[in-house]
Amino acid sequence: MTDPTVTLAHGNGGRAMQDLITGVLVNQFQPQGPTVLEDQARLPLAELLTLGDRLAFTTDSFVVDPIFFPGSDIGALAVNGTVNDLAVSGAIPCYLTCALILEEGLPMDTLRRVVESMARAAQQAGVTIVTGDTKVVPRGGADKLFINTAGIGVMRSGVTPAATQLQPGDVVLVNGPIGNHGAAILVARGELALETDLQSDCQPLHGLVEAIVAVCPEVRAMRDATRGGLATVLNEFADSAQVGIRLLEEQLPVEAAVEGLCELLGLDPLYLANEGKVVVVVPPDRAAAVLAAMRSHPLGTHSQIIGEVTQGSGVYLKTGFGTERIIDRLVDDQLPRIC
Fold first, then answer.
1. Does residue 33 surpass a pLDDT of 70?
2. What integer pLDDT is reported at residue 36 of this predicted model?
3. Residue 277 has what pLDDT?
4. What are residue 165's phi and psi, to 5 degrees?
5. pLDDT tens digit sequence for 176-186
6. Does domain 163-326 have CATH number 3.90.650.10?
7. What residue spans define the domains of the chain?
8. Distance from CA of residue 291 to its chain's centroid?
9. Which of 26, 149, 191, 324 has its CA 20 to 30 A from that of 55?
């Protein structure tokens, strides 16, 4: 594969496309040996059945700008985002697909860098990218590249988290500082001439979820707080279960750099995107065990209990002054194209 950039020929189904698939994609996603290129992946059902009794299936698309940002990039984001959607459902992630929409003129080295990042992230998460698709659009028809992924996982027996299960008295936890991804993307765009060490929290959550369900298989609900941040997830929980949720301001983990950036720009970290944060709701008698399990995992050392489920409706923040502030849904995006 010697072409310096992606051309329309790489999407026409001919030799150039074959060279792109075999020379750039297959070598990274399936490095173990020659692969028969079919239009589908054929998965061993018997092997999947040893893990659980139901399938979890999800899909997501990634259009982040810029495609490389502090702490991660669009490739790792696509893998981790899909793995996390499976993990928070209580599933063991197994297989991913990868569909690429490439803009004519995209440097081939950029594509290689993204694909290599996807391969590393998949290996870290213990999943295999088994099939995919590639399309090339004319220059200006896309912004560098877009990625669509789908994921298949196996549901653990006896573990079925769902937002409808929340009950008054339940405890809400999160596995660390919120808003880092959204803040890192904002700084990476270079529009504000700011200097900071902020990095995205992009990471796979499957191992942390495994630690949670090992001590609390009856976990009420789990959700990764991506677009719309923590506030959006909690509003979705409250609406689904027809309950209220009260957050404690002094318990919310927010890094000083994120807090300072939000104060400077008039943003709220509760609405900033995350790519490695799981919101967990558990029965009150299991909260201490779950918190300890989360803190024992590398991705949960800064876990906190941040609130509780209440009677009523809506999400409220109890401030340090003893007052309560309504935490409503976003009307518009604080930041566009953050995932």
1. no
2. 64
3. 98
4. -90, -5
5. 999 999 999 99
6. yes
7. 8-155, 163-326
8. 21
9. 26
CB 168, CB 309: distance < 8 Å: yes
Distance CA(206)–CA(162), nearest Å, equals: 17
Helices marked H in the chain — which ranges? 15-20, 27-29, 45-49, 74-87, 108-125, 180-188, 206-215, 229-241, 256-265, 287-295
Minimal CA–CA distance to 262: which of 229, 236, 237? 229
Please give the backbone phi and psi of residue 239, each rounded to the nearest 5 degrees, phi first: -65, -40
Among 201, 126, 173, 169, which residue's Cα sits nearest to residue 281? 173
In this predicted structure, the answer to whether residue 34 has a pLDDT above a threshold of 90 is no
pTM for the predicted model, two decimal places: 0.94
Q: Which CATH superfamily is domain 8-155 in?
A: PurM-like, N-terminal domain (3.30.1330.10)
| Residue matched to tokens 């090992």 | 214
DSSP H helices, 107-151, are 108-125
Q: Which residues have CB under 8 Å from 307's CB, separation 6+?
A: 171, 172, 234, 245, 246, 247, 248, 251
**Residue 51 predicted with pLDDT over 60:** yes
pLDDT at 330 over 90: no
Q: Tell me: the pLDDT tens digits for 231-267?
A: 999 999 999 999 999 999 999 999 999 999 999 889 9
